[in-house]
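The instructor's notes for this session suggest beginning with a concrete chain rather than abstract definitions. Hand out the sequence below and ask the class to guess, before any prediction is shown, which regions might be ordered.
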Amino acid sequence: MGVAHLANRPVAEMSSGEAKRTLIARALVHEPQTLLFDEPGNALDLAGQVELRNEMLELARVGLGIVLVTHHVSEIIPGMERVVLLQRGHVAADGPKEQVLTSEQLSSLFGVPVRLFRDDGYFYVHA
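After discussion, reveal the predicted structure:
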């Protein structure tokens, strides 16, 4: 995870990106089969968000299961196959990513017109 140089630095003195990578590295020490990411891009600048997506993508490529909770469609990495959309605590849609992530589904979920774009396996929205 590229955090060895942070070994002696308190987490409170790290940037948000450094702290997130440190937490991921700490979890990986236990050789989990799956990691849960809850709103991982919060508090990260654009470069940090891209870096985090790339790290999640690499973890998925080596066979680690990724469960992602997010409000940001662009955080959904290409290797993710299933998407569950929740609305007020209830499942609004569940299934293969390409079937669930549609402009119609997202417009209904968020209550605003949403245009969905796909680029290099990633999805992006414009409201």
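Then share the key points. The chain has a mean pLDDT of 91. The CA atoms of residues 83 and 101 lie 8 Å apart.
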